[in-house]
Amino acid sequence: MSDRAKRSAERIRKEIPMVQVLFDLGYHVDPRGGTREQQFSCDFHGDGRDSTASARVFPSQYFCWACGRSRDAITLLREKKGLKFWDAIRALEAQYGLPPLPWEAGDDERRPTLSQVLEEVLHPSETAEQVLSRVDAFLMGICRERSLDPHKVASLWEAYDRVVLFASSGGDSETVRGLAHKVLTASKEAVRKANQPLGA
What we know:
By secondary structure, the chain is of the alpha+beta class.
């Protein structure tokens, strides 16, 4: 695991309470329970219907005696929604308002290409706010890496700003998502033409 992955995972374990993640995923726990350990039914073993509360939640993970293993928020999201490691990290960061960690010297993981980042941005289950946040991060990446012609980048930012303005003036969420996806589609086409890797 890269240093960046370790830092990202550790921050999630430290700053996002496990009980809140479980509650938001529909498990029967009380997010206001404080540090009190709660037991709940785990749906990862047997036929998925746990008739007894076989799992116990702790601050940064939970342990299921029937499964014989513990899961943190990242592992839970990966197994529950079939996500890859970085997709789970980004989903948790977006949902709980954590900005992506900056790249630091020594981060040995290769950065994804702009096209790969864009494909991750186009996640159908995200809210309008999450999509806008990813569009912003994507355009910032283009600017940082100087991957596209500045005039093209400026036009993409202008389109993004129009979507943000529409959202902030009370535009409905489905329309905001649709407009944001149009900006991303235009960005995807520009990236394909430029064919420039991010951080290569």
